[in-house]
Write a structure and sequence with these properties.
This protein is mainly alpha-helical. The chain contains ten helices and two strands. The longest helix has 39 residues, at 209-247.
Length: 249
């Protein structure tokens, strides 16, 4: 496919992604109140634990409105994740055969639950991170957290874990497309493990190592599971190629 066709395809996929995100954001607009209460709850729990004043602060006149728009967009990203993950897969594999395009069902079947599992794990660890960070507030002082800053922290936290859980699926898809063999992934396993632990350490600002290990181990397990799937696919492809060469005159 020439470069111009690639760019046109990219534009079309981005437009479809934008449509999906917009529809998801419209639905998220009506779920703003319960979702905001859920996002604010870790701060309220932290305030109750330390007996201080910890709350979200809307500094400007339009801050509350801006907050609702951003939360709606954030929900749109989560709700429309099957749609934009499919568009990603469809853009990466435009030149595959009809049978290989059928792998899109398997891609979505694995990527969507993993993305949501990563987001759920981020939500699970977020109260601990909020409690630890707010514990640095001196006694007798109040901690009024800017709503925009807090929302940005939550969004990066959730989306980073969701995408981290999807990366092994992308590894498998690239392998199935014949672009990277399992041996290439295998040679970089040490770097993958190191990056998984560094990522977990950065994204979980807690003083204990247990939380970091609990978060890093699933990422490492998914990496090696993807590596195994790639190795099986390479052996199957090699046997098919050898059989085709044997039949060829």
């Amino acid at each position: 496919m020439p470069l111009r066709a690639h760019l046109l395809e990219l534009r079309r996929r981005l437009f479809l992604v934008a449509v999906g995100l917009t529809l998801g954001a419209v639905g998220g607009w009506f779920l703003y109140t319960p979702v905001f209460e859920m996002l604010q709850q870790p701060l309220l729990d932290a305030a109750a634990d330390r007996g201080g004043n910890v709350s979200v602060n809307f500094a400007g006149l339009a801050s509350a409105f801006d907050m609702q728009i951003k939360v709606s967009l954030f929900l749109g990203v989560l709700v429309s994740s099957p749609w934009w993950l499919y568009q990603l897969w469809a853009f990466i594999t435009p030149g595959l055969t009809r049978r290989e395009r059928g792998y899109a069902v398997g891609f979505l079947g694995a990527a969507v639950p993993l993305f949501l599992a990563g987001a759920a794990m981020a939500f699970w660890t977020m109260p601990t991170a909020v409690r630890v960070l707010t514990d640095f507030t001196p006694d007798g002082a109040s901690n009024f957290i800017d709503a925009q800053t807090y929302l940005s922290f939550v969004m990066r936290f959730v989306l980073a874990f969701g995408l981290a859980f999807v990366l092994p699926v992308i590894m498998v898809c690239i392998n199935f497309a014949g672009l990277v063999r399992a041996g290439t992934w295998a040679r970089g396993w040490r770097w993958a493990v190191l990056l998984a632990f560094v990522f977990s350490a950065v994204m979980t600002p807690t003083p204990d190592a247990i939380t970091m290990i609990v978060l890093a181990l699933p990422i490492c397990a998914l990496y090696f599971a993807a590596l195994g799937v790639c190795a099986v696919n390479d052996r199957r492809r090699d046997r098919r190629d050898e059989a085709a060469e044997a039949v060829a005159p």
